[in-house]
Amino acid sequence: MADDTLLHDPDGGMPRLIGIMERLRDPETGCPWDIDQDFMSIAPYTIEEAYEVADAIERRDWADLKGELGDLLLQAVFHAQIAQDRGLFDIADVANAISDKMIARHPHVFGEENRDKSAEQQTRDWEAVKAAERAASGEGGTLDGVAMGLPALLRAVKLQKRAARVGFDWPDSSHVLKKIQEEVEELHEAAESGDSDHVEEEFGDLLFVMANLARHMKLCPETALRRANAKFTRRFQWIEARLAEDGRRPEDSDLAEMDALWDAAKRDAKL
């Protein structure tokens, strides 16, 4: 019988979590679901947990943030345990790899370089180090290494940033706004053509340019869209609440009434 003392120690910290995951993945005594998982099957959960961390931060719910960070940490431990089971690496290798990377990318803190740098200079130095790392790994192209699995808006911004480093960029946001107008016109023309593939292509072009505008305005398009989603949710729930006061649901209303309620919700500063 395995000694479960550590696993039930409320102050066991990381060793406790690692031990729990080892037990869950034990082929003889573990959980069938956990044993059955692989990198690909849990990757969507990893992405979801990262967004739930961001959501807790957006809501400034620090108690929830603690829990969500734990969920995200579990994902890292889960991936590392799968890797250990396959003889690839373990969680200590993961920690050492990121530690080495942080030291290499901060010579002004851990090395001999002068710490008296602006944030902009430190960012340029950081990008130079990352470029050298990509070159050393055989990634010679400007866009090499931008992860395919990123959310599409974030990947668009990363691609644009890479291209901008070599001079492929508009000088300011006014040029991007003009391009947005052009893309809207092209989307309208595609919609009139009735060609669904062409419509999708032009819609994608418009989203890509919108992401570029966010980058020029120093905004994160994912964050902006999450905030818009949250605002839409608050206002629509307000509409539902007003209708419920009359014993009705949205399907019992019509667009004109709900649109008027939406305008009323907009006038409420909290919504």
TrEMBL record:
<dbReference type="GO" id="GO:0047429">
    <property type="term" value="F:nucleoside triphosphate diphosphatase activity"/>
</dbReference>
<dbReference type="Pfam" id="PF03819">
    <property type="entry name" value="MazG"/>
</dbReference>
<feature type="domain" description="NTP pyrophosphohydrolase MazG-like">
    <location>
        <begin position="38"/>
        <end position="110"/>
    </location>
</feature>
<protein>
    <submittedName>
        <fullName>Nucleoside triphosphate pyrophosphohydrolase</fullName>
        <ecNumber>3.6.1.9</ecNumber>
    </submittedName>
</protein>
<dbReference type="InterPro" id="IPR048015">
    <property type="entry name" value="NTP-PPase_MazG-like_N"/>
</dbReference>
<feature type="domain" description="NTP pyrophosphohydrolase MazG-like">
    <location>
        <begin position="176"/>
        <end position="236"/>
    </location>
</feature>
<dbReference type="InterPro" id="IPR004518">
    <property type="entry name" value="MazG-like_dom"/>
</dbReference>
<dbReference type="InterPro" id="IPR048011">
    <property type="entry name" value="NTP-PPase_MazG-like_C"/>
</dbReference>
<keyword id="KW-0378">Hydrolase</keyword>
<dbReference type="InterPro" id="IPR011551">
    <property type="entry name" value="NTP_PyrPHydrolase_MazG"/>
</dbReference>
